[in-house]
Design brief:
alpha/beta; eight-stranded mixed sheet; single chain; binds 5'-O-[hydroxy(phenylacetyl)phosphoryl]adenosine; Rossmann fold; 2 domains; GMP Synthetase, Chain A, domain 3; globular
Length: 427
């Protein structure tokens, strides 16, 4: 399936799309209504090109129809739910049939195999088990591929280290911010991750991070780190994954139809142009979602991957449409700030962006942890560095930030998804 000819892949996509349209038209309360309101009938879809006739589905739609408004199966056919917390209100609840669970495990197994995972590997899953998909969905996939799975979950870092050492863990699944936190704790305990651990790979995902952060993690642990993308609404992880060439993530197009749109107009953009990822699940039973606006910003690589797989690749996620903030007219993605900071060798592993208002002007203050080796009990001798960071941010972002250096390991650390931006402007 990974190397299927494009033409065959598109044929399969259309078959699965038709099946999905029939299913939602017949049984999903939300889509029954939507199709009726827009005069749409599954029979009228003659090719993939007809897909844009369907209006987008948004997070707001999921929220308004919470909890069961998207289901296409009765509850006796549903075996699990996961949720994803939004910024406000109720979480989004996503349901799985037995086949959906089996299928999502298959996509994880396929992704892990692509990176070179073997059944003799020891896999420590350091993402939260429970309502979050990063734990269980990945777990089932790793088991399917036959690895020894340690269901460690997130947090309890000392215990994680003990597990890694006792069982000689070779692969970890972890958020990039937790990986950096883990590195801090290992350092504090005098354990050298390059020598005292047996890691060879990490799967990093669930939040935006920069290429420099990936490289930092690879260097600290002496491993290969692969980017992994997904969202609860589309099973969770296993939507797109990097291959050995690590240039973009292959999005599994036999399961999802990929579109990139211009966020303000909804216009579909050609490959190569940056915009919002829109996904249609075409291999889900319990709760297929059509043309879902993910909010995630990326582009599709227009060329073929050296590995020969035919599923198109999406770029590293730049951020979410709603993470972007505007300071004095300049649009800033937190991931841009991160990329700039992490490219400086003096910068440590953590940072925080604070947005505030000074005399009715918006200001971006960036707190930056310095590298441990530079800290001698005071920050006084580092004024020059402060200026350097400020100048670098200013020249790349076109806005003048305030920069505040802080001691290593003093900013809040997380074992899950990091919250980097604190917006005090409304208060
Ligand atoms: O985070 C699923 C997941 C678990 C993906 C484990 C990868 C690994 P949600 O909690 O619903 O699901 O959050 C989905 O997280 O829309 C993106 O904004 C962000 N995200 C996920 N993976 C990446 C990534 C899981 N590799 C939301 N890079 C998505 C950047 C990511 N952002």
């Amino acid at each position: 399936m990974e190397y299927i000819a494009r033409e065959e892949l598109e044929k399969l996509q259309f078959l699965r799309l038709k099946e999905t349209l029939r299913r939602v038209y017949k049984s999903s309360p939300f889509y029954k209504r939507l199709f009726k309101e827009n005069g749409l009938k599954p029979l009228n879809f003659k090719s993939l090109k007809d897909l844009p006739q369907i209006p987008f589905t948004t997070r707001e739609d999921l929220r308004k129809n919470f909890p069961y408004g998207f289901l296409t199966l009765p509850l006796n056919r549903i075996v699990r739910l996961h949720t994803s917390t939004g910024t406000t209100g109720k979480p989004k609840a996503i349901f799985f049939s037995k086949k959906d669970i089996e299928n999502s495990a298959g996509l994880i197994a396929r992704s892990m195999k692509m990176t070179g995972a073997k059944d003799k590997d020891v896999f420590q899953n350091m993402m939260s088990y429970g309502l979050f998909t990063g734990g269980l969905i990945f777990h089932y996939g790793a088991e399917k591929l036959g690895l020894l799975v340690i269901p460690a979950g997130a947090g309890n870092t000392e215990r994680q280290i003990e597990l890694m050492m006792d069982f000689k863990t070779t692969i970890i699944h972890i958020t990039p911010s937790y990986a950096l936190y883990l590195a801090d704790i290992l350092e504090e305990k005098g354990i050298n991750p390059r020598k005292n651990l047996n890691l060879r790979m990490a799967y990093l995902g669930a939040e935006p991070y920069s290429e420099s952060t990936r490289q930092k993690i690879e260097q600290i642990f002496n491993i290969k780190a692969f980017n992994s993308y997904g969202l609860s609404e589309m099973n969770g992880p296993g939507v797109a994954f990097e291959c050995q060439f690590k240039e973009g993530m292959h999005l599994w197009e036999d399961n999802f139809i990929l579109e990139i749109i211009e966020p303000s107009t909804g216009k579909v953009l050609p490959d190569g142009e940056e915009g919002e990822i829109v996904l249609t699940s075409i291999n889900r039973e319990a709760m297929p979602i059509l043309r879902y606006r993910t909010g995630d910003i990326a582009f599709v690589y227009p060329d073929k991957c050296q590995c020969g797989r035919t599923h198109r690749r999406i770029s590293r996620i730049k951020g979410r449409v709603d993470d972007m903030f505007i300071i004095r007219g300049v649009n800033v993605f937190p991931s841009e700030v991160e990329r700039i900071l992490m490219s400086l060798s003096e910068v440590g592993r953590n940072y925080q962006i604070i947005l505030e208002r000074e005399k009715s002007l918006d200001v971006m203050r960036v707190k930056v942890e310095i590298k441990k080796e530079l800290f001698d009990g005071s920050l006084e001798h580092l004024r020059g560095l402060e200026e350097k960071i400020k100048a670098k941010l200013k020249s790349e972002l076109m806005l003048t930030p305030k920069v505040e250096l802080v001691e290593p390991a003093t900013l809040p650390r997380t074992t899950g998804k990091a919250k980097r931006v604190i917006d005090k402007r409304e208060i």
